[in-house]
Amino acid sequence: MRKLSAFNITALVLGIGFLYLPIVILVVYSFNASRLVAVWGGWSMRWYAVLAQDAALLQAASISFRVAFISASVATFLGTLAAVALVRFGRFRGRLPFAAMIYAPLVMPEVITGLSMLLLFVAVSIDRGFWTVVIAHTTMVTCFVAVIVQSRLVDFDVSLEEAAMDLGASPAQTFVLVTLPLIFPAIAASWMLAFALSLDDLVIASFTTGPGATTLPIRIYSEVRLGVSPEMNAVCTIVVAVVGLAVIAASILTKLSAARGAPARVQP
Amino acid sequence: MNPQPQRSRLAGIVLWLPYAWLVAFFLLPFLIVLKISLSQSAIAQPPYTPLFDLSAGWSGVRSFFAGLSLDNYVFLGSDPLYVVSYMKSLQIAAFSTLMLLVIGYPIAYAITRTAPRLQAVLVVLVILPFWTSFLIRIYAWMNILQHDGPLNQLLLALHIVREPPAWLSTNTAVYIGIVYSYLPFMILPLYAALEKLDQSLLEAAADLGCPRWRTFWSITLPLSAPGVVAGSLLCFIPIVGEFVIPDLLGGSQTAMIGQAIWSEFFANKDWPTAAAVAVVLVCLLVTPIVVFQHQTMRGMERD
What angle do CA B250, A194, A263 make, to 5 degrees? Predict the structure, then answer.
């Protein structure tokens, strides 16, 4: 049996503490009654009440949610197709550039992706606004979906598919009746993560947005540049809560997905 | 081996739909950036020339190519501002990647030493901030690092400092922000590599009387090399082009190249220069990106 040394425990405690403490401080400050962020004035829901009156902010939040919903849905569809093509189609012609286009956006600096998308929209004279942000976000998150679904398909017990086909199912039937239900939790998880990524994005949205389509991060960024404020602490707390819940749900789904249909593994 | 399904019309759609989308919205935009970086800035809408005018026929195409020039690149090379920004970005990215490795490795290693059930929980705990808003996590640090914020209050209370030091608008703040934001990107690949490590090798080394530091140095570290490479690239490449962190936490001396693209575009409205800055950045990153793709693809195929 492996043993945890004092060094291991210190690394874990400091590491997890470092990752979470700033967010905890932010959440606590959002309930601070004082207008001065750094002075504690007792617990209060005051800044949440102020937020509820901020029409521009609510508008931005609603735009962000709609963008995230549409782009996550389209990206989940495209990303799942891409993953199936990568895992199941063998070495087809054009596979290398295809795989390159899936993996490159994962690390590409956002300023470059944002700038290039914008210049495309200008070149084909599309007016920038809601739909250009949707297209840009869909492109960005499709790759994340593809990678998540791909890693699930790689783990997949192929004998289940082979059994279905031996019994006379067509490839399409096999996919819909056998593969899809088994990888569904991974697909649902990647939808939620795609949603969270789109909801979060500032840089790409700033380049591709237009009049009337200010997303929540753009709005938060323009306030935050001027300094810390209690209202912003409250907005950020709400976003953290929403995204946190989505991610927890997603990771539970991934767990379920790994438990289902995976080849039996011998525990070490 | 995977079964090779009959390549029906349906299979064609499965492949060509995402393929076409990525060509249209990922590859094509890059070619446009390349083209605009060779154009001249103009006071017009869109603010650059030459424009591609197919209606003018062959002469339109000829005059289009005649109008392209390398002037923007010559300008970038001659202006020390850009050269310094590139160097600064590469330097900050290299140094913070090193810090991330030093901080991330012990954490990833410690996770693999815990019981399997706890491991799963710890991995989720590491992933959680990775998907939580980037912007908000940087903003959380603005709270902490501000002049009368919790960090300075703590330092004053412990009598470590007499005068509250200024943290915001410094290099230190940028490094803190980068390490904080990218730590999950470093821990996860390291964990994935360390978790696959065959424990019996370590036991064998211990049985044969190998000291623990030597076991680590000659077994654990070399076997986790793919994780080290993947984690470093996953951090280094985006950090070079980072915009939000230096913009919110850094000062004028931490001008990184991502900010240069942003301000050329939004403040100076000089699109061709912004495009040229971006093209040079992609050229600088092309080697690490190709290595990253190669690694990822190999990782996917081996499993």
Answer: 125
Nearest CA to B230 out of B196, B186, B271 is that of B186
Mean pLDDT per block of 10 residues along chain B (303 residues) reads 54 84 89 84 64 61 68 80 88 95 93 87 82 82 84 82 80 92 91 85 83 83 88 91 90 81 85 88 85 77 57
In Å, how far are A131, A142, A192 from A69, measured between CA atoms?
Answer: 12, 13, 9
Q: How far is CA A195 from CA A119, A189, A201, A240, in A?
A: 25, 10, 10, 13
For residue range A79-97, list pLDDT tens digits in order: 999 998 888 887 777 888 8
Listed residue (A236, A242, A212) closest to A224, CA to CA: A236
pLDDT greater than 50 at residue A160: yes
Contact (CB<8Å) A146/B106: no
- Residue in the structure block whose two tokens are 């990568």: A86
Phi–psi pair at A32, nearest 5 degrees:
-80, 130
Q: What is the ipTM of this complex?
A: 0.81
B14 and A85: CB-CB below 8 Å? yes
Structure-block tokens of residue A140: 């960005």
Q: Is the Cα dihedral A151, A192, A14, B93 positive or negative?
A: positive
Residue A43: strand pairing partners? A32
> Which member of A11, A18, A151 has the closest CB to residue B106?
A11
Task: Find the helix or strand (DSSP H, E) in which B45 lies.
Answer: none
| Cross-strand bridge partners of residue B155 | none
A163 touches chain B (CB under 8 A): no
The separation between CA A165 and the C-alpha centre of its own chain, rounded to angstroms, equals 35
What are the DSSP E strand ranges found in B74-216? none
Under an 8 A CB cutoff, do A135 and B113 touch? no
CA B57 to chain centre: 42
| Rounded Cα distance, A108 and A122, in Å | 21
- Is there a contact between A137 and A201 (Cβ–Cβ < 8 Å)? yes
Residue A266: pLDDT band (50, 70, 90) is very low
Considering only residues 20 to 49 of chain B, which have any Cβ-Cβ distance to chain A shorter than 8 Å?
21-23, 25-30, 32-33, 36, 46
Whether the CB-CB separation of B6 and A171 falls below 8 Å is answered with yes
